[in-house]
Structures are given as structure tokens and as C-alpha cells.
Design a protein that fits this description.
Layout: H1 2-10, H2 12-31, H3 33-37, H4 40-48, H5 52-57, H6 62-65, H7 68-100, H8 104-108, H9 114-146, H10 153-180, H11 187-208, H12 211-216, H13 224-230, H14 235-258
Helix pairs in contact: 1-9, 2-7, 2-9, 7-9, 7-10, 7-11, 9-10, 10-14
Length: 265
């Protein structure tokens, strides 16, 4: 519990910053929707002239884009990117900051097992992610209601909840990297290339209409158009997310338990 409280307090300010930022983004973006909705025909003509590759690259689905949930789905892809960077930053930092700060050996001299250290740190990160996701869901609901358009609340909840699923994926990946990379000097130097690589792979897969690439990029596991039309998530991708999060988390425990921790000099 001490590890959890210490970590959660450490993330308090950054969590508030992320909550305000994500809420502000969704509020500002959805405030533009009424202006677009007033000129649907004109915008449809513009979209019709866009090359298919460009529409795939920026994740625009013309069939749903002008509905309020379709417009929200377009915003969602950018919120996913930002939240994934945040989650992976937290995941990479949980162990690596103790090693780079040469405090890991001091921490392990305390009467606490390594598994308890990982549990405390992961629980704190999970709490931060949950706070961020709940705030985002609430901000999304208020922003969509403020547009005055009619929408299905269950579908909006489903769409906004995918932020949490992606955060779990990148938190687990970050935690795994934090115990497998010998020494991480900069968390950002690991996080940004990794997250953007997955995002670009997903975009290339859409442009090339390559289904195999979709399996590689978590950013393409949750299709807003599918969620709007079917009111659910694609089960096969949901299973991949669950399996990866469980496997990466278990591997983090196992590797950290066996890892040599050098004393600070």
C-alpha cells in the first residue's frame, strides 16, 4: 500500500494536467460540430473529392463522418494517440525510473517483495489511467450533448471506453519494456517512437487495405464505423487486447523477479 500511495501521489499533478488536456480537446473539437453539420452537403462534396488513400490515412469514414458520433469517432483516433503516449510513459517509468535514479537497490532493502513493488506501482498507474478514462468519458458525454444533436448514449459510452483499452495495452507494453531494457535513460525516447510506429503501421495498413497490418497496430482494433453500425466491438481484437495485457503483465512480474539490480555507486 505504501508503494501505491507514494506512486499515486507522484502522478497527481500530471494526472490533473492530462485530464484537463483531454477534456479540453474533446470539448473544443466537438464545439466545431454544429458548424460542420449546418453545411453537410458542401462538406460531403469536399470529402467526395478526397483521394481514398487520404481518407484512410486520416481515418475519415464518409458514411458516418457527418453524424455526431462519426465526427466524435474522428476525434477519438487522436485522443487514442495522446492517451497511449501517456499510458506508455507511465508503464515505462514504473521500474526504469528506479534503476536510472539508482534508487532500486534502496527500495528493495525495504521489507517488501519484488512482486509487491510491481503490484504497488502497476496499481498506481492503473488508478491514474482509470481516473483519466472516466474523466474523458464524462467530458465526451457533455461535449456531445452540448452539440444538440441526437445520439445513442450506449454507443458513445462504448466508443469513449476504448480509450481505456488502448491505455491498458500500452501500459502493459511499457511495463514489460521497463524490465527488459537494461537501462532506460529517457522514458520519452522509448515511448514516442514505439507509439508512433504502431500508429503509422495502422495508417499504412488502412491505406494499403492490408488486413494483416491491422493485427499489428492496436490503433486499428477499434473501428468507430463498426461501433456505430453494430453497437459493439470486434470480438477477435478484444481477445487479442486481453491476452496481450495479461501476458505482458505476467512477464513483467517474472522478469523483474529474476533481474539483477545493481547497487548505486
Amino acid at each position: 500500500m505504501n508503494v501505491f500511495l507514494r506512486e499515486f501521489r507522484a502522478y497527481r499533478k500530471s494526472t490533473i494536467t492530462w485530464v484537463i488536456s483531454l477534456s479540453g480537446i474533446v470539448g473544443l473539437f466537438m464545439a466545431l460540430y454544429p458548424a460542420f453539420a449546418n453545411d453537410i452537403e458542401g462538406l460531403n462534396e469536399v470529402l467526395a473529392n478526397f483521394p481514398e488513400a487520404i481518407k484512410a490515412l486520416v481515418n475519415i469514414t464518409p458514411e458516418t463522418f457527418m453524424s455526431v458520433l462519426g465526427f466524435y469517432g474522428y476525434l477519438l483516433s487522436f485522443a487514442w494517440l495522446a492517451a497511449s503516449i501517456h499510458a506508455m510513459n507511465l508503464g515505462v517509468g514504473i521500474i526504469s525510473k528506479e534503476i536510472s535514479g539508482k534508487t532500486a537497490d534502496f527500495l528493495l532493502t525495504k521489507p517488501v517483495r519484488r512482486a509487491e513493488v510491481v503490484t504497488g506501482k502497476l496499481s498506481a498507474v492503473l488508478a491514474v489511467i482509470l481516473v483519466t478514462s472516466v474523466a474523458f468519458i464524462g467530458a465526451s458525454y457533455l461535449a456531445v450533448v452540448a452539440t444538440g444533436a441526437s445520439f445513442d448514449g450506449a454507443t458513445l459510452l462504448l466508443m469513449s471506453s476504448t480509450l481505456l483499452l488502448l491505455q491498458l495495452v500500452f501500459m502493459a507494453l511499457g511495463a514489460l519494456l521497463s524490465v527488459t531494457i537494461p537501462k532506460i535513460k529517457s522514458v520519452v525516447a522509448v515511448t514516442l517512437p514505439t507509439v508512433f510506429a504502431f500508429y503509422i503501421i495502422g495508417a499504412i495498413g488502412d491505406v494499403l487495405e492490408n488486413v494483416e497490418l491491422r493485427w499489428i497496430s492496436p490503433f486499428r482494433y477499434f473501428d468507430p464505423a463498426y461501433m456505430i453500425s453494430e453497437g459493439g466491438l470486434e470480438a477477435e481484437y478484444l481477445l487479442v487486447v486481453a491476452a496481450f495485457v495479461v501476458a505482458a503483465t505476467a512477464a513483467t512480474y517474472v522478469i523483474f523477479a529474476k533481474r539483477d539490480i545493481h547497487t548505486a555507486v
